[in-house]
Amino acid sequence: MIDVTAFFAADRAAQAAGIELLAFGPGSAHIALTVRPDQGNGLDGVHGGVVFLLADTAFGLACNSYGRPTVARSCQIEFLAGATIGDRLEARATERMRSGRNGIYDVAVMTAPDGLLIAEFRGNSRELRPT
Amino acid sequence: MIDVTAFFAADRAAQAAGIELLAFGPGSAHIALTVRPDQGNGLDGVHGGVVFLLADTAFGLACNSYGRPTVARSCQIEFLAGATIGDRLEARATERMRSGRNGIYDVAVMTAPDGLLIAEFRGNSRELRPT
Amino acid sequence: MIDVTAFFAADRAAQAAGIELLAFGPGSAHIALTVRPDQGNGLDGVHGGVVFLLADTAFGLACNSYGRPTVARSCQIEFLAGATIGDRLEARATERMRSGRNGIYDVAVMTAPDGLLIAEFRGNSRELRPT
Amino acid sequence: MIDVTAFFAADRAAQAAGIELLAFGPGSAHIALTVRPDQGNGLDGVHGGVVFLLADTAFGLACNSYGRPTVARSCQIEFLAGATIGDRLEARATERMRSGRNGIYDVAVMTAPDGLLIAEFRGNSRELRPT
Questions:
Q1: Tens digit of pLDDT for each residue in A50-106?
Q2: Alpha-carbon torsion A92, A96, A97, A102, what sign?
Q3: Cβ of A24 under 8 Å from any chain B Cβ?
Q4: Full-model pTM
Q5: C46 band by pLDDT with thresholds 50, 70 and 90
Q6: Interchain proximity D102–B96, CB inside 8 Å
Q7: Which fold has domain A4-127?
Q8: What is the DSSP string of C33-73?
Q9: CB–CB of A64 and B42 under 8 A?
Q10: Interface touch D40/C13, C-beta < 8 Å
Q11: Can you give the residue ranges of every domain in chain C?
């Protein structure tokens, strides 16, 4: 495994968003975000892009945990319930499969501590070729 | 049509990200972002969540342009090429179909002025029921 | 639970394709197909539509297992490895989440008995309203 | 361009399903299917797998039209309206983008001659490496 804490600290966008690293392991990550006013959308909820950023960050930690630089090839997100400014959101990434240089990771985004499911995210990853 | 300029100005996350509104019409939007250092990922590129936020913002403007509050139900993004800090990205949202309360919108994210395709995004929208 | 065996027997397209029901439970299903020559594509492999049909059938059994008529709203499939005519394929559907009238189901399609992962499928389901 | 007519004639599953080739061009295809009783699902409609097979076949014709063997990497389908046995369905594939060995194709599936939109499909293609 890589030094996940250092990898996370280097993620500028995640830091700027105020994301916190709660736990991690090979192929998994658990992070959180308390939604700030500047993360709202025009309809008084959390911006979908912020929910995606949180899920994508958990995905990035999980798929890079093995120490090989890995990028997102495609992602899909289903928005299942709304969240509002001030809510605490947690994202848990788990590995669905890993084969060759490809991987599939699932991320559930929930409110905490209530556990309302806000979004389900699936990310397809691709390890970069060694240079 | 709604007042798209006011709708965009109310989008806190888009404003905080530094997104600019270039043009809009019924079912379409054209926006831009010059990537800041705090929008980078841990691998020296632009964070995928920032690319998504840009695409999703264009989608939100396009699907709300008719004046009925509309939310994202699901989104899919394919990452086709990387971008780096300082790059100028443009996102163009177009309407693929709209039927009943459902809509499908495509967003292409490109570098400007080179026109390298960075990502293709598809968003499924759902009009909220009148309350 | 519904009578899954009768539900499966009524699925004309699944029967015509030669799909076999191996096991089922609440929110899950396990089915198989031995690929026939008339299920090939133009490149000497199994037609992607046949792999999808197998996965979608497992999804349909799993999401209808509770006895409320439920349909597919959207599906996504990743093709991870090829299969050829004569191969035996198995699909296992599991429930990722179920909330209100919405559900998300994952289906893995593998060769048997080797267990090579051919495709990963995700289906979003929607219960029909009672009439 | 390849000989699309011959490519289509070699597609065993498309032939077995009764799909008809109506028109084609570089990056595009237009095909049709009159739904048979053995293409129904267990809920009196057309099986989603059959709608996918039709869309996927149009996608395969469009992405292979340039003469380089190309396969589906991933596909997504949104089911927008139901269809029933005896309906005539048409699928039109168009190219959204093509870059390096990757392509994205959109396929609309409609009833004919009414033009009711049944499904929207997006396929991501990948050219095989020359061997």
A1: 999 999 999 999 999 998 999 999 999 999 999 999 999 999 999 999 988 999 999
A2: negative
A3: no
A4: 0.91
A5: very high
A6: no
A7: Thiol Ester Dehydrase; Chain A (3.10.129)
A8: EEPPGGGB-TTSSB-HHHHHHHHHHHHHHHHTTTSS-EEEE
A9: yes
A10: yes
A11: 4-127
